Q: What sequence folds into this?
């Protein structure tokens, strides 16, 4: 990994102070070696430590260096695929388990924040905003579906009601989920890392896993040390590279970009989002936004293949923001950055086991803030020998991207272009 410093994001600029962490320079023995200190790795580590395991976390860069420290901060429950589609794929029994778990990630985040006193600007309330009657119909049917699995907190909003919570004329209605919400994502990761250490876990930074020696007692090698463990959890997601070749074939890293305005002041911020809820629209290539604690607007949109430098990011995302909020035309953009998430063909998480002792979860393709927290719990359950919920995810089928590793990017870009057209013309 070339660059191991945080990007120049709003989050890095407003991160809580943390002590420096060591580089692994020894041979260490532990129960579980976790590769990657994003939410998947940290959530796994915390649940394992709470259940008496010894845990060592290896992070190639810094805690929250990947998507977990760069994302839109939206606590969006459920999966990137509708539960009826999942039901048709895996059958009613597995779908029941997955359906019941779909809103658990948000609860886990809140428990973590409360138990470990994590300062991460947590706010309740997330809105799914419909841009067309067809999208509104879809929200209505989704609400009915979720109620079947016991999730009854969702509120449909007509055009008048959504205008009370979002100062934008684009929407015909929406759905409010008070179990959604938002956080400062890097500060959540940093707080979880501190919680891991408070329970006796060790986190090494600037310590990439470069090789896994598989076997009954596997060993993870870093440039200057190694960790022998009973179990390994692979949690490198879109930043993992080819460390575990079996995983790379069925997933694809994608870049997505976020901009942050200068502070808007109370009056303007309240005019945009009076209740301080976060919002995502219902397009396939969706726009999402929210306020920060100091009343900036954080706005992300779409998937942009190849746009990397901040000026380029602002040029792409700012017009989307102005379409929603033309009143921001004179507002300055203070930060623009990019991050990678991991896409699977089904848009469902890729979860499983290699041999007896290497576990992985990656590729949730969206809604990752909540899913990754749930994943940590489900992985820890599996390591304790209770694999029913783990198996519900592990049974989800996954297929290689058409074109293999060489052609998967142009094929996926073509797919995104197609869905972009569908969004544009409301198809
Ligand atoms: C810009 C952006 C906006 C997003 N917005 C939202 C949102 O608003 N809501 C939402 O739900 N989801 C959002 N997501 C998705 C969400 O952030 C991710 O799904 C989630 O954070 C993934 O967490 P993770 O721990 O699996 O991976 P990551 O956070 O990417 O962590 C992986 C870690 O593993 C480390 N690593 C990789 N390889 C190795 C190795 N060999 N050795 C050691 N360490 C290694 C990396 O350095 C990294 O720190 C967004 C993603 C991006 C990029």
A:
């Amino acid at each position: 990994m070339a660059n191991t410093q945080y990007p120049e994001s709003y989050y890095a600029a407003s991160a809580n102070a943390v002590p420096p962490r060591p580089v692994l320079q020894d041979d260490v023995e532990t129960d579980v070696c976790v590769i990657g200190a994003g939410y998947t790795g940290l959530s796994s580590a915390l649940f394992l430590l709470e259940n008496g395991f010894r845990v060592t976390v290896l992070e190639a860069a810094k805690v929250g260096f990947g998507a977990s420290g760069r994302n839109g901060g939206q606590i969006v429950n459920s999966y990137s695929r509708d539960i009826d589609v999942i039901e048709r794929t895996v059958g009613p029994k597995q779908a029941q388990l997955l359906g019941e778990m779909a809103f658990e990630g948000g609860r886990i985040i809140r428990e973590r924040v409360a138990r470990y006193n994590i300062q991460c600007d947590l706010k309740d309330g997330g809105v799914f905003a419909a841009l067309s009657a067809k999208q509104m119909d879809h929200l209505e049917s989704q609400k009915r579906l979720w109620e079947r699995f016991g999730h009854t907190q969702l509120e449909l909003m007509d055009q008048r009601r959504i205008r009370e919570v979002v100062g934008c004329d684009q929407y015909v209605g929406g759905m409010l989920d008070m179990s959604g919400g938002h956080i400062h994502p890097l500060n959540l990761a940093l707080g979880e890392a501190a919680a891991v250490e408070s329970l006796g876990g060790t986190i090494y930074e600037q310590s990439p896993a470069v090789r896994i020696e598989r076997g009954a007692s596997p060993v993870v090698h870093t440039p200057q040390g190694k960790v022998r463990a009973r179990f390994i959890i692979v949690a490198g997601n879109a930043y993992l590279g080819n460390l575990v070749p079996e995983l790379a074939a069925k997933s694809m890293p994608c870049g997505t970009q976020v901009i942050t305005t200068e502070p808007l002041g109370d009056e303007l911020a309240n005019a945009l989002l009076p209740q301080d809820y976060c919002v995502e629209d219902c397009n396939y290539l969706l726009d999402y936004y929210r306020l920060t604690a100091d009343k900036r607007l954080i706005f992300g949109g779409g998937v942009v293949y190849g746009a990397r430098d901040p000026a380029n990011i602002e040029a792409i995302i700012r017009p989307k923001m102005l379409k929603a909020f033309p009143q921001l035309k004179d507002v300055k953009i203070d930060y623009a950055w990019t991050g990678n998430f991991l896409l699977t063909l089904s848009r469902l998480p890729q979860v499983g086991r290699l041999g007896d002792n290497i576990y992985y979860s990656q590729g949730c393709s969206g809604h990752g803030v909540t899913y990754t927290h749930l994943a940590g719990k489900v992985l820890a359950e599996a390591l304790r020998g209770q694999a029913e919920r783990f198996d519900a995810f592990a049974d989800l089928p996954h297929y290689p991207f058409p074109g293999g590793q060489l052609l998967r990017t142009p094929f996926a870009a073509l797919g995104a272009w197609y869905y972009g057209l569908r969004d544009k013309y409301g198809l």
The longest strand covers residues 333-343. The chain is about 35% helix and 25% strand.
